């Protein structure tokens, strides 16, 4: 007689099942979207939380790191909205157009919607889902169970549409803020559609209270039209006990340019997964990611760049500064499809370890199915250069200040990839703040 083998569900997996059963009837969307949600949750339930035997998650074992499933965050009250008004301070004074997503819900009354440029439309995801005017599935994330969980539970976010040929001079700032002190979870879905020849800078920040072990599962879908240009800057600055999981899917048309900069400076456990498809001929993608980690933080950046069309180019640079017992993870894969001849793709990952207990895992990969390409990848991990530090100290610079200068130079390479001067200065200041807290 054959014994039946059953997988043991964790408390978090059971909690998510209970949560979905309790809220699915109240989530926005008609029968079609409801069926999509049920299918997505069934896929999550069949796989369960990813763990160390899941290749794409081998360094971030959510079965171990995610102990329970938090209840959905309640709608924000007056006190929460007051807190939210102060969010996104890292870019204060830069004149960005702020769109606030508070405790998982778009807050138009707190957002700067006056005087939108002609051709720019902003809507709440909740509204589009309620009218059955939005598709929920995440295509490039494939069978990823956490992306499926977002599809099942996402209730709100922001939809931004930019008409062809429109140059948006004022950057749009998506401010995601968790306000409550009680443990809670948010699931948001946002989408950006950039028409042919349009130009936009999109800034995204995430933050919340240090005293709450809240959970964030956020997804952003980006469609960059032919010859359009998008600069995307994201700062993950969650509270000290928070879990943050982000999924980004970006697809580019012919001759399009997509530049992405990500900066992780907060959160207990962070997973930023990016899927970038260069679908049009001559498309360009630059993805630069940086992490500043201390204490027992765990930050995972997983990147997949898929070259589909001929003549495309991509550059990927990841840098991590890891102190104390923190852990930085970078997994990057460049895939060149059979039709993507004359692809030019380069990937580099570097980690700087500031203590004996710090850990960095770097795994770059290439999958090439075309023969007329230029592709390469590399990775280095090490400590501060003692000779350079001695050189600075020999000229009267104190040891801590010498270390700070070397760290600043190391991280500065990825910050320099940001096109706008004002955003670069704000990001540099955020790095300096982190260095001061370390000292």
Description:
It is globular, with a radius of gyration of 21 Å. A 10-stranded mixed beta sheet has the order 2-1-5-7-9-11-13-15-17-19, with helices on one face. It has a 9-stranded mixed beta sheet with strand order 3-4-6-8-10-12-14-16-18. The protein has 439 residues and is of the alpha/beta class. It contains 9 helices and 19 strands. The mean pLDDT is 94. 23% of the residues lie in helices and 37% in strands. It folds into 2 domains: 11-280, no CATH class; 386-439, no CATH class.
Q: Mind telling me the C-alpha Rg?
A: 21 Å
* Structural class by sheet pairing and helices: alpha/beta
Portion of residues within helices: 10-25%
Give the biggest beta sheet: 10 strands, mixed
Through-space gap between termini: 64 Å
Strand order of the largest sheet: 2-1-5-7-9-11-13-15-17-19
Order of helices and strands: HHHHEEEHHEEEEEEEEEEEEEEEEHHH
